[in-house]
Amino acid sequence: MSGPNGDPNISVDDGIIEDEDEFSEEEYAAIDSMLDQINSCLDDIEDRNDALNGKLHELLESNKQARREFRQQLNDEEPPPPPPPPAEDPASRDTQTED
User: Fold this and answer.
1) What integer pLDDT is reported at residue 42 of this predicted model?
2) How far is it, in rounded angstroms, from Cα 11 to Cα 50?
3) SS (HEC) of the chain
4) Which residues fall in a compositionally biased region of kind Basic and acidic residues (predicted)?
5) What is the pLDDT of residues 53-66, one digit of tens each?
6) CA distances from 91 to 31, 85, 96 (A)
7) Beta carbons of 64 and 58 less than 8 angstroms apart
8) Which pTM was predicted?
């Protein structure tokens, strides 16, 4: 019979694999404390991320508003562009060059 990792000469019955994990109360308390610290750090990172996201959103909106005001100011100050010259008729150009 092959072992748990496919090793042909190792049997589950050899006593190598023990499913019983024996941890003391102190080890469980230490693990619990570490998980609490990790959770606290993740909460802090999430709060900072939310704050940065909000600030970036405010900055984006502020920049959009500033660009709108700048465009409006430019439009108010600039005279309208002159109309384009009339398009020439190709037939009239041919009659002018025949002289």
Assistant:
1) 98
2) 53
3) CCCCCCCCCCCHHHCCCCCCCCCCHHHHHHHHHHHHHHHHHHHHHHHHHHHHHHHHHHHHHHHHHHHHHHHHHHHHHCCCCCCCCCCCCHHHHHHHHCC
4) 90-99
5) 999 999 999 999 99
6) 92, 17, 9
7) no
8) 0.47
